[in-house]
Amino acid sequence: MEEQALLLDVALSRAPAGWHSLVRRAYERIEAHNRRRDGKVQMLNVRDRDGKLELWTDQRLERRSLQMDLLVICDESVHVCQECGQSGKPVEESAWRKTLCAEHARQLRERVR
């Protein structure tokens, strides 16, 4: 079964709002790569996994520059609040792990109590 490329608006709907700028940046990197290399790299999935952004493409990335760009974007997500996009840090509450700013971490703790 061939997987379908993920359109940007669908990818954004799967990512927390605070990480939308990171997802857009990933798409920009892929598009730039495809223009330079006449490539066909496509995004297949975007998700939050334990407070870190995960991005999946349709092929093994042979170009180290694109691979590194996407890894850096994912790594940056652990410093960006998933809710608002401000500076954040990983927070564990109950069974959840999220990356949140101080205000959203406080709100999460209040909801869990």
Give a structural overview.
By secondary structure, the chain is an alpha+beta fold. The chain has one domain. 43% of the residues lie in helices and 20% in strands. It has four helices and four strands. The strands form two sheets. The protein has a two-stranded antiparallel ribbon. Strands 3-4 form a two-stranded antiparallel sheet. Helix 2 packs antiparallel against helix 3. The longest helix is centred in the N-terminal third of the chain and has 18 residues. The chain starts with 7 loop residues before the first helix and ends with a helix. The model has no long low-confidence stretch (mean pLDDT 89).
Question: Which segments are poorly predicted (pLDDT under 50) over 5 or more consecutive residues?
Answer: none
Beta-sheet strand percentage? Answer: 15-25%
| Strands, count | 4
Q: Please, what is the average pLDDT?
A: 89
Strand order of the largest sheet: 1-2
Topology:
Blueprint: H1 8-14, H2 20-37, E1 43-49, E2 52-57, H3 64-76, E3 89-93, E4 96-100, H4 102-112
Antiparallel strand pairs: 1-2, 3-4
Helix pairs in contact: 2-3
Outline:
The chain is of the alpha+beta class. It is built from 4 helices and 4 strands. The strands form 2 sheets. The protein has a two-stranded antiparallel ribbon. Strands 3-4 form a two-stranded antiparallel sheet.
